[in-house]
Amino acid sequence: MRFDILTLFPDMFPGYLGQSLLNKAIQKGIVDVQVHDLRMWTKGTHRKVDDRPYGGGPGMIIMVEPVVDAVEAIQKLDDTPAQVVMTTPQGTRLNQKLVEDLAVQQRFLLLCGRYEGFDQRVIDVLKPLEISIGDYILNGGEVASMVMVDTLVRMVPGVLGHEESSIQDSFSRGNRMLEYPQYTRPRDYRGLPVPEILLSGNHPEIEKWRAAQSLLRTQQRRADLLDEKDNSGQ
Ligand code: ADE
């Protein structure tokens, strides 16, 4: 899976990309992430990427020309056309089903917004998939793009070890339950013991206890997940 990320803040990415599972997947060559600085596609000495909104109002708007020029150039860097994604609070809310549907694609070009957003003609020309990671406002689309990369790579065969298989995750297809509580050593911490059943070695009973805990948590915290109609997450 390949990601091209177009951003005004490319320095935000190396720390994240250099860590953990993602770094291993990049080293193995099963995931490729290329970060591109939008300022590379600006014209003139001022490297201007944004301007004031027509009609007035606060903030600055990212201009259409550098974004479209950048996307057209980046698309040519690989034979596989990229699904263009814009991270924006105006987008479709991301959930696990959408992640799984998207993960059949091989290549993504992520547009990270800043300021008051993009000129509408960026959307009219490029027709990106507009995605929000939740009903709150971030300072920009960079963190949302990292979230997209982070969750999509979990779907790439070979990225997770099988004990971490994404199939078992809460919210994976066919699993709409929250996780049961987990414990490790010590057996007792500040008077809080590990539940006796987990020390019993009785695996069928442990499985039953875990299933019951999952259901209880889901009922208490996210009853909407148990409602079939809500499983699209929208
Ligand atoms: N940019 C700013 N807020 C965002 C959000 N909630 N999701 C995606 N992109 C964003």
What would you note in describing this structure?
With 234 residues, the chain is α/β, with parallel strands linked by helices. It has two domains: 2-153, 3-Layer(aba) Sandwich (Alpha/beta knot), CATH 3.40.1280.10; 176-231, tRNA(m1g37)methyltransferase, domain 2 (Trp Operon Repressor, Chain A, Orthogonal Bundle), CATH 1.10.1270. It is built from seven helices and nine strands, in the order βααβββαβαβαβαββα. It has helices at 13-17, 20-28, 64-75, 96-102, 120-126, 142-153, 203-221; strands at 2-7, 32-37, 50-51, 61-62, 83-93, 107-112, 129-132, 188-189, 192-193. A five-stranded parallel β-sheet has the order 2-1-6-5-7. Helix 3 (64-75) packs parallel to helix 5 (120-126). It is elongated, with a radius of gyration of 22 Å. The structure holds adenine (ADE). Adenine (ADE) binds next to strand 5. Adenine binds next to strand 5.
Ordered list of secondary-structure elements with their pairings:
Layout: E1 2-7, H1 13-17, H2 20-28, E2 32-37, E3 50-51, E4 61-62, H3 64-75, E5 83-93, H4 96-102, E6 107-112, H5 120-126, E7 129-132, H6 142-153, E8 188-189, E9 192-193, H7 203-221
Parallel strand pairs: 1-2, 1-6, 5-6, 5-7
Antiparallel strand pairs: 3-4, 8-9
Helix pairs in contact: 3-5
The protein binds adenine.
Short description, anyone?
With 234 residues, the protein is an alpha/beta fold.
Q: What is the count of DSSP helices, taking H or I runs of 4+ residues?
A: 7
As residue ranges, the low-confidence spans are 230-234
Round the Cα radius of gyration to an integer and report it: 22 Å
Q: Per the principal axes of the C-alpha atoms, what is the gross shape?
A: elongated
Kindly state the mean pLDDT as a whole number? 93
Distance between the termini: 26 Å
Largest sheet: 5 strands, parallel
Helix content, binned percent: 25-40%
Element order: H for helix, E for strand = EHHEEEHEHEHEHEEH
CATH architecture of the largest domain: 3-Layer(aba) Sandwich
> What's the name of the CATH homologous superfamily of the largest domain?
SPOUT methyltransferase, trefoil knot domain
- Tell me the number of strands: 9
Strand order of the largest sheet: 2-1-6-5-7
